[in-house]
Amino acid sequence: MAATEPSVERAGTLLRLRGRLDRASVAGLWPRALAALDGVQGLDLHAVEALDSAGLALLAELADRLPQATRRIEGQPPGLAGLCAAYRMNADLLRAQGTV
């Protein structure tokens, strides 16, 4: 099965990310994600195939820009839980309280 080309698109109030979120793709996705962010309340990660620390940084930065009261993260791509644990981040992709 061929890998999905990394992409970002609006789906209602969600920002849908697809493909591998890694060092090679993040620089190209960042400006597109920022341009689509106005009015977004959550991130849809169901179609993310894999990510590395650069992908996690992208997701964390996007999550931080969402309204706190309505922020939601949908989907659990492979590797997300391990990276969140390693970087002491919670399920909302934010740094756990009390960490630096």
* Relative helix content: 25-40%
Q: Which band does the percent of strand residues land in?
A: 25-35%
Dominant shape: globular
Order of helices and strands: EEHEHEH
CATH architecture term:
2-Layer Sandwich
Overall tally of domains: 1
**What's the CATH superfamily, by name?**
STAS domain
Compact overview of the structure:
This protein is of the alpha/beta class. Helices cover about 35% and strands about 25% of the residues.
Question: Can you tell me about this structure?
Answer:
The mean pLDDT is 91. The protein starts with 6 loop residues before the first strand and ends in a 14-residue tail after the last helix. The chain has a 4-stranded mixed beta sheet with strand order 1-2-3-4, with helices on one face. The chain has helices spanning 23-36, 53-64, 80-86; strands at residues 7-11, 14-21, 42-51, 72-74. It has 3 helices and 4 strands. By secondary structure, the protein is α/β, with parallel strands linked by helices. It has a single domain, classed as 2-Layer Sandwich (Transcription Regulator spoIIAA). Helix 1 packs parallel to helix 2 (53-64).
